Amino acid sequence: MRFMMIVKATTDSEAGVMPSLELINAMQKYNEELVKAGALLAADGLLPSSSGIRISYPEPGGKPKVIDGPFTEAKELIAGYTLIEVKSREEAVEWALRFPDPHGFGQGVIELRQVFEAEDLMNNPETLAKEMELRKQVVEQKNA
C-alpha cells in the first residue's frame, strides 16, 4: 500500500523561508529511517506557489485555463510530500506521527492519503495491462 504524506504550506513556506538546519537534519534522519525500513519511495519540498502554475478546466470539454501563482489560502497549498510504501494503514499512520514538525512553531500540518493502485482504478484487463506496460517503461527509462 502506498501513502502520500502531504505537508501543508504555511505563510513562511509561501514566503520562501528556508527550513532551519535543525529541521533539515531531523528530516534527513527521518528519511534515513524510512530508507532502512524499505518504505521510502520519494520525498521532496516544493517551491512557493508564487512560482507555480495552475491549470483549470472551467467548462466541460472546453479549453484549459492557465493561471500563474501565487495562489491564496496557504492552508490549502502543499509545501512538500513524502511517498511511502507500507503494509497497512496503521503503519502509514505510525510513520506520519514520527514525521518532524515540518514548519516548527506548531504550524505544521501533514495530511496522509492512500494512493490508488492501478488495479483499484481499472477492472478491464486490457487497460490494466497497458498501464502496467507504461509503468514498466518508466522504470526502464530511469535505469537507462
- Could you say which structural class the secondary elements and strand pairing correspond to? alpha+beta
Could you give a short account of the major beta sheet? 4 strands, antiparallel
Q: Numbering strands along the chain, what is their spatial order in the largest sheet? A: 2-5-1-6
Order of helices and strands: EHHEEEEHEHH
| Separation of the first and last Cα atoms | 27 Å
**Low-pLDDT residue spans:** none
Q: Which range best describes the helical content: under 10%, 10-25%, 25-40%, 40-55%, 55-70% or over 70%?
A: 25-40%
Report the radius of gyration as a whole number of Å. 18 Å
Proportion of β residues?
15-25%
Helical segment count: 5
Bulk shape: globular
How many DSSP E strands? Answer: 6
Mean pLDDT: 89
Task: Kindly describe this structure.
- The chain is an alpha+beta fold and 144 residues long.
- Helix content is 37%, strand content 24%.
- Strands 2-5-1-6 form a four-stranded antiparallel beta sheet. A two-stranded antiparallel ribbon has the order 3-4.
- The longest helix has 19 residues, at 125-143.
- It is globular and about 50 Å long.
- The model has no long low-confidence stretch (mean pLDDT 89).
